[in-house]
Design a protein that fits this description.
mainly alpha, about 0% strand
Length: about 90
């Protein structure tokens, strides 16, 4: 049972931190083209993880509080993508 609790804790930790990490990367200013491409790759990875885990948890039969956490993770990850890829 301890390993299951550890797995759930890791899933929630990744869910909670993926969106804010992606948003934090959008504030990093880069001047070189390769650094900008690398930054966008990391933002897309963090956002995809957050949105994927959020959707996975939304489709499960879980309590409302966890679904709200998943919805917030999806919203924050989508905001990070919007912030990075909007026209400037």
């Amino acid at each position: 049972m301890e390993s299951l609790a550890l797995l759930v804790t890791i899933i929630f930790l990744v869910l909670i931190l993926s969106g804010p990490l992606a948003i934090a990367l959008t504030f990093v200013k880069t001047t070189k083209r390769w650094a900008n491409i690398l930054k966008r790759i990391f933002i897309c990875q963090f956002s995809a993880i957050g949105i994927g885990l959020g959707v996975m948890l939304l489709l499960q039969g879980i309590p409302v509080g966890t679904k709200l956490l998943a919805l917030s993770a999806i919203a924050v990850s989508a905001y990070a993508l919007k912030r990075e890829f909007k026209r400037k």
